[in-house]
User: Fold these one by one.
Assistant:
Number 1:
Amino acid sequence: MKNLLLIMVIATLALAAGVMTRLQTGVGAVPPAAALNFAFPDVDGKLQDVSQWQGKILIINFWASWCGPCKQEIPEFIGLQKRYADKGVQFIGIAVDDREPVLAFLRQVESNYPMLIAGNAGSALSNQLGNIIGVLPFTVVVNRQGQIVHRQPGEWTEKDFIEVVEPLLAEKSDKLR
């Protein structure tokens, strides 16, 4: 009986390690056309289509007002958006949440990047973009050509940003606005 339990624990840990490795390395990347075809309303109810940011480096962050780590990383994202906006970087927050709790949070933290309200549809998109275990926060980085170049379950720091995004800044695109 103990051997069976030990085998089950080891198998579970191996599965979890494989899932995390897959998420970190981007194996099984979603084709760009499928990955970047979404539109959600912003906090004012205006529909925002991802195509308006075509040609920019996108940092798409899935979050929720009830998620502590999500709320911790947003002020850092605000600073990064301010510093890198003129270099073609665009943060997009996608709240896997309802409008009212998001508005309550944004009364405390004034965002300088779009916050879209997606509810359950945000969870589905997050899953489609590689968040197969449904963790929040979850961040996806898309290069200027519309290709997913990085996925990160859990908190994303300025150090992560520099490692992933700085090399992309050197890439040029004729689509850059």
Number 2:
Amino acid sequence: MKTLAAVLVETGKPLVLAEIEIPALKPGQVLVEIAYSGACHTQVLEARGLRGEDRWVPHCLGHEGTGRVLEIGPEVTKVKPDQQVIMSWIKGSGMEAGGTVYSWEGKYVNSGGVTTFARIAVASENRLMPLTEGLDMRQGIMLGCALPTGMGAVINSGAAQAGESVVVFGVGGVGTSAVFGAIAADCTPIIAVDINPSKLALAAKSGATHTIDASTTDVAEAIKAICPNGVDLAVEATGVPEVMAQAIDAVRAQGGRAVVLGNAAEGKTLTISPKIFNAGKSLIGSWGGDSQPDRDTPRYAALMSNGRIDVEPILSSPYRLADINNALDDLEAGRIGRPLIDMSLD
């Protein structure tokens, strides 16, 4: 069986559409017919060669999506054929089956435990979750990366409590999801910071109580005007080291926390004063919002289903798989929140 996939053949060059041959399933692997894929800045960095040396090219990309199970390999028990599933890079329960090697015109094409820039793909069992009944597969792509990363940064990594103040630096798909996390944790005020007015408008629509345009405003002074002693929690979702430093500066002494989510380009460094630690501030890293899919996905999905959070405005108009390079360009330029790649479009 063959499938159409977008393959990274050379970093810094556009992805190439290729008909790749699907191998037989190994124990713990699942064959998924992908309905929708999302994309985040991690894929942009990979495609542009900004994550350092890529030893795996040519390889498939994409780590969030939804689809339908076509076939299960030996020892798979978590999902079954015809079941709708969420595909995510964040590992949950189930077997870790490793990556897959496809073939294409006599060459090997590598793939990790999950890839979604394809019509059909092989995934490891532990990268799949059953899609909550009644949840739209379009919106379900947000459960593969943006929501668990952004919401988890607030709820899990940052341990936000009701009534605490939160500032989010960078309100794309992940940052707006952090706004959702602050809403779910009953935090207030919720401050959104960005240089893109359309993203700030979306953050306000999504529940941010205050917005700050960093291109025209002194961010530190604007935050101080809202929270004179600093915020309880800052979430950084830009990947810009200077903004990471702003995030730790923005939190209060004696208990303020800053969670860094953004992926910086290879070679970038962060400079901060060690005095932040003497002041009792905490700088926290986060792996996918420290979300555990089997524990957290049902909670995030329930917030979507009951209308507490609305992800629809974040999603772009649909792209064809053939337009995947345009989707990455638009994401990189900040023209969209989260690209929606619809595999049913020719």
Number 3:
Amino acid sequence: MVEDSKTDVFLIREAIASAQVNADLHFVSDGDAATQFFDSADADANAPCPSLVLLDLNLPKASGHDVLRHLRSSKKCGKAAVVIVSSSDVLSDREAVAGLGVNGYFRKPSDYYEFMKLGNLVKGLLGAN
């Protein structure tokens, strides 16, 4: 999960737990930390790669678009499933990430119960991989 909002991290954890997804979660709070995570995995044959990346678009230090491009260029992690989790509902954002092969786009709702639907999306994607 690449997310800089502590509130959204809390809600995402809640959504994943409510969907009873059994997964090891790793969180980073900015774009640079995310790219470093993927670079470390590429450099270490024993380092794990994520099965699924939940990625915010509006991040400090490097945008979600930049992180996604970097991830897709990773030799080891480039095939990971990606769900954009963003407050942006701008068509150009959706089109830009679609061209980089995302598996889903979840617009962050203001309603708690709507946010919890993210858990089932994650569960479905992890079950498909």
